[in-house]
Design brief:
alpha/beta; single chain
Length: 252
């Protein structure tokens, strides 16, 4: 009898839905049993207005997740997965964080991030036209990628497969991206972690890898050449190879 596959929880980024994971490389899904999770207010899920903290979103994902699994978080989803691992380390076997950073906005001691006014502009635009704001964000995710057009088509197709995210959930997601800073608790992380960055990412600079190496020396960091903010779609083979090497390293 074939042994059961280890579980893989998948948490996507801002404004997306779980359909985006249909683009995962077969080499990865053949090794792990995927559990795509929809964030609060996304993909048809209800949004509890009282649950606006990052810890609340992590709890919402933990409630949907297997008892113990590898967690793969992309962008905002990586921030949620990191919070889940800090809150419930016994539930998270390992972390794969893609185009994720412990702090998404710039600070005096953290220049490898987006300016805070960029998020303010997104918030203002969100009130006027959520659909146009999402489209602009999609374009930013693929900017600079060597496979930009194909990746953009895949992201658009995924968005159309499930109900659009609720405006209040989108606004909360932007608040989390703008306000959260997990640099302080990061050294408390006790699970193995792989951090993947896109060489040409304009949202989460690849230079974050150097900072992670200082904050969390035991982490494994890799930069995917030619990729922007969605390397698992644009450079699937390279991402699958890095994840396979990481899983072999932690004997999974």
């Amino acid at each position: 009898m074939r042994p059961s596959l280890p579980d893989l929880v998948l948490v996507y980024g801002w404004g997306m839905n779980s359909a985006v994971w249909s683009g995962l490389p077969p080499a990865l899904t053949a090794r792990l049993r995927a559990h795509p999770i929809d964030l609060p207010g996304h993909g048809g899920r209800n949004f509890d207005e009282s649950g606006r903290a990052l810890a609340d979103w992590a709890d919402a994902c933990l409630q949907q997740a297997p008892e113990r699994a590898v967690w793969l978080g992309w962008s905002l989803g990586g921030l949620v997965a990191l919070r889940a691992a800090l809150q419930a380390p016994h539930r998270v076997q390992a972390l794969i964080l893609m185009a994720t950073t412990p702090r998404f906005v710039q600070a005096m001691d953290w220049r490898v991030a987006m300016p805070e006014q960029n998020f303010a502009q997104f918030n203002a635009a969100l009130l006027d036209d959520p659909a146009a704001t999402l489209e602009r964000f999609l374009a930013l995710q693929v900017r600079g990628s060597s496979e930009a057009r194909g990746t953009l088509r895949t992201l658009r197709a995924g968005l159309k497969r499930l109900p659009p995210p609720q405006r209040s959930a989108l606004a909360t997601g932007l608040d989390l991206l703008c306000g959260e800073d997990l640099r302080g608790p990061l050294p408390d992380l006790r699970v193995p972690s792989l951090w993947l960055f896109g060489e040409r990412d304009t949202l989460v600079p690849a230079a974050v890898a150097e900072r992670i190496a200082v904050l969390l020396p035991q982490a494994r960091t890799r930069v995917i050449a030619g990729a922007a903010h969605a390397p698992f779609l644009s450079h699937a083979d390279a991402v699958a190879a890095e994840i396979a090497a990481f899983l072999d390293e932690i004997i999974l």
